[in-house]
Amino acid sequence: TNLSLTLHSFWPVVHVFSGRGKLEYPEETQDKTLAVLLEQAFRIKDEVAASLQCSQGCVHTQTLSHKLLESHILTITRIVKQLSLNIQTLERQIAQRDSAVCGTTRAVQWLDHKNMAGIGDLRGRVASAEVNSSQRQVLRLQQEVTQLRSAVDAKMNKLQVKVRFHTIWKYWRSP
Asked: Which residues does UniProt call coiled coil (predicted)?
């Protein structure tokens, strides 16, 4: 009969092994397993309810109903265990992600600190180079000023000599 077919429990096990030999339950597999278990639990519950309504006094039917109820309880227990495993898997995944995020955050902070130190060092080098360049430019300008002063002084001396010569020349030429 229909009721006797459901007495043996059906537990769909879909295991996925990672490359490290670790048993994993991907979300899709977990969802499928859980859906099958829930469907089975509701089907058994409906069968128990139907058998209890159909036969109130038959010992065979009560025994069958009792077995169906036990099967239903076992299926619900398996569902709870599967959910517990799923929760543990998710907690491990969350912990791994949190650890990765924490490590990434530390690495980014270290790189940021290193970059800021590098930028500070570059600013110092640029400032030092600008100071050195400015000092060289000031020295060059001082040398140019000194050269120009020397040239102006030389021309002034020549002009003074010419003015004296003209003055003396005029003095000697005038009667």
From this structure: 131-158
